[in-house]
């Protein structure tokens, strides 16, 4: 936007700008709708600033071309499927949400946009099993201090921070229209880095020779440390569920157990239904790994074998997702005979 490099370097930069836009659009979250709008605004702003230079005004077309070339396979699939995905997006944008039309009250929508931003702290930066008022308050303090310092003291690249600000404002407008249901954190991916960037900018422009600024820096440092601690705790919980003494049943564990079942017999899998009816985990493992020609069914007849993991992952499907917790697997309510026990599972024969 502001470079004085030769035209060739600017052209290359615009090409990579288009490729970056294509990558963000392909994520198919909120970036798919908001990033193109932001980029169009950026292109128009560039053309306006260079309206007396015809060659420079053509540079944004390089980003448009490179973005569409990078999305060639997407557009090809859309054409083949008669733009099914595009029509689905249009329906999603025009249809009523689960709770009807979004509120037309300006203050209600403004509060919702602010709430979704602040609540991001509880979802991403200050994790908790449940909604925590303490974490919400910490988020307000953190966002408030960072935003205040950036607005008051920022002296860096105004074009760059403006681009980020436009992206966040458009997203906040979109979030104010979102239906009153679980707003999962991955749908706020555009806001994830806002507090981080604001905090870095804040610390960079604080004058630590002043007492008030030292206090602000200390508060930010404590909050950042608290964020690191909460995320490390939940990362440790997740890794322990995978590799700890009480862990989930892995593919290697499953293969070792299936190899103890005689060839050609029946393996009971109650989860073999719906989408897993033809592509269940045991079907895949036996077809491509153990090759014991087992008959895998969810009927669980007498004489069949049953693998019971000792633990399963309880995923809390709420707006704090993903929070993972290990819970003990309930026993199968059938007469069974134990045949094998491993640190991760039991192998039973159904009577």
Could you explain how this protein is built, in words?
This protein is of the alpha/beta class. It has 13 helices and seven strands. The longest helix is centred in the middle third of the chain and has 33 residues, at 211-243. The radius of gyration is 27 Å and the shape is extended. The N and C termini lie far apart (74 Å).
In short:
The chain is of the alpha/beta class and 351 residues long.
Descriptive key words:
extended; 13 helices; 5-stranded mixed β-sheet; 351 residues; alpha/beta
Main sheet: strands, sense, barrel: 5 strands, mixed
- The structure class reads alpha/beta
As a whole number of angstroms, the C-alpha radius of gyration is 27 Å
Quickly count the helices: 13
Total count of strands: 7
Strand content: 5-15%
Order the strands across the largest sheet as they lie in space. Answer: 2-1-3-7-6
Overall, the morphology is extended
Q: Can you tell me the residue ranges where pLDDT is under 50 for at least 5 consecutive residues? A: none
Give the H and E element order: HHHHHHHHHHHHEHEEEEEE
- Span from first to last CA? 74 Å
**Helix amount:** 55-70%
Average pLDDT for all residues: 83
Write the layout of secondary structure elements.
Blueprint lengths: L6 H19 L5 H19 L4 H4 L1 H12 L1 H9 L3 H11 L11 H20 L7 H21 L4 H19 L17 H11 L6 H33 L7 H8 L7 E3 L12 H10 L4 E3 L7 E5 L1 E5 L8 E5 L7 E6 L3 E6 L1
Parallel strand pairs: 1-2, 1-3
Antiparallel strand pairs: 3-7, 4-5, 6-7
């Amino acid at each position: 936007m502001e470079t004085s490099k030769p035209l060739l370097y600017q052209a290359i930069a615009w090409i990579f700008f288009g490729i970056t836009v294509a990558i963000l659009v392909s994520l198919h979250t909120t970036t798919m709708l908001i990033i193109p709008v932001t980029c169009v605004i950026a292109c128009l702003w560039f053309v306006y600033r260079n309206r007396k230079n015809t060659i420079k005004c053509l540079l944004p077309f390089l980003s448009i071309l490179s973005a569409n070339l990078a999305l060639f396979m997407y557009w090809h699939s859309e054409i083949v499927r008669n733009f099914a995905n595009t029509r689905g997006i249009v329906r999603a944008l025009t249809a009523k949400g689960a709770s009807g039309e979004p509120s037309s009250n300006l203050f209600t929508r403004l509060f919702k946009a602010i709430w979704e931003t602040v609540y991001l702290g509880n979802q991403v930066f200050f994790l908790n099993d449940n909604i925590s008022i303490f974490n919400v308050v910490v988020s307000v303090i953190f966002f408030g201090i960072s935003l205040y310092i950036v607005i008051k003291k920022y002296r860096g690249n105004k074009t760059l921070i403006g681009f980020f600000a436009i992206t966040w404002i458009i997203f906040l407008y979109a979030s104010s229209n979102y239906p009153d249901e679980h707003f999962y954190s991955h749908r706020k991916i555009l806001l994830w880095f806002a507090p981080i960037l604001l905090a870095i900018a804040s610390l960079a422009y604080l004058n630590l020779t002043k007492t008030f600024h030292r206090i602000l820096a200390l508060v930010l440092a404590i909050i950042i440390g608290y964020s690191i601690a909460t995320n490390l705790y939940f990362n440790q919980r997740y890794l322990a569920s995978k590799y700890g003494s009480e862990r989930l049943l892995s593919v290697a564990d499953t293969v070792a157990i299936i190899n103890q079942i005689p060839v050609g017999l029946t393996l009971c899998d109650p989860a073999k239904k719906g989408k897993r009816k033809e592509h269940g985990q045991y079907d895949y493992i036996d077809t491509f790994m153990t090759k014991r020609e087992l008959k895998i069914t969810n009927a669980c007849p007498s004489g069949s074998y049953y693998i019971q993991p000792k633990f399963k992952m309880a995923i809390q499907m709420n707006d704090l997702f993903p929070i993972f917790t290990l819970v003990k697997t309930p026993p199968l309510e059938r007469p069974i005979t134990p045949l094998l026990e491993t640190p991760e599972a039991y192998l039973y024969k159904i009577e």
